Amino acid sequence: MLRDSERNHRTGESESKTHEEPKSETKKVKNLSEFAQTLQLAWNGLLVLKNSCFPTSMHILEGDLGVINGLLKDHSSGGKLTQLKIAQRLRLDQPKLDEVTRRIKQGSPNGYAVLLATQATQGGVGAEGTFPVVEPGLQRRLLRNLVSYLKQKQAAGVISLPVGGAKCRDSTGMLYAFPPCEFSQQYLQSALRTLGKLEEEHMVIVIVKDTA
């Protein structure tokens, strides 16, 4: 009789454990790509450097989605740009970083956006339609190659916005693409809390609108 009640007690215990586990499984985010999926998708396309292009997804960490929609507009088609070409570099020196911080503060709350850029998957294009076709002469490469290039140069990639089209005062700005560094980590505190460490290659994108 004792054995039966012991056995029941044990099965009761194991049952309650199995009930608990699935809950924690659904909440557990295992890597940065999965963390990005919990954020709002802001842009899907190709970052271009020289003859290479890097399929990239950008999810919004903070700031105003309107800035992204306004500055990443393809003026010829009226839709969103599908390709962004890095033409300049910004050295990761403190005075330069202070200038970016100043521009973010100046642009708050509606004139800036900070995004998490991760490797885009071929199928993960969502409502943006099909993935942009790679232009002839461009080699498709993984985002981690761009990240290691910028790390090696100790620089952020810089893009003047908008790309093409008339540059009127109220719709110009800059995009900065930061490889993992002290500056970019300040925007990833919630990801760090969730994951403990950020092992996957990624970039933090800062878009700031020019102030008149």
UniProtKB/TrEMBL annotation:
A Pfam family that this protein carries is SPOC
User: Where in or outside the cell is it found?
Assistant: Nucleus
Q: Which InterPro entries match?
A: SPOC-like_C_dom_sf (IPR016194), SPOC_C (IPR012921), SPOC_met (IPR010912)
One GO location term (cellular component): nucleus
Keyword field = Nucleus, RNA-binding
Species per Swiss-Prot/TrEMBL record: Gopherus evgoodei
Amino acid composition bias (Basic and acidic residues), ranges on this chain = 1-28
Q: Which GO terms describe its molecular function?
A: RNA binding
The SPOC domain, residue ranges: 32-211
What is the official name of this protein in its record? SPOC domain-containing protein
Region described as Disordered:
1-29
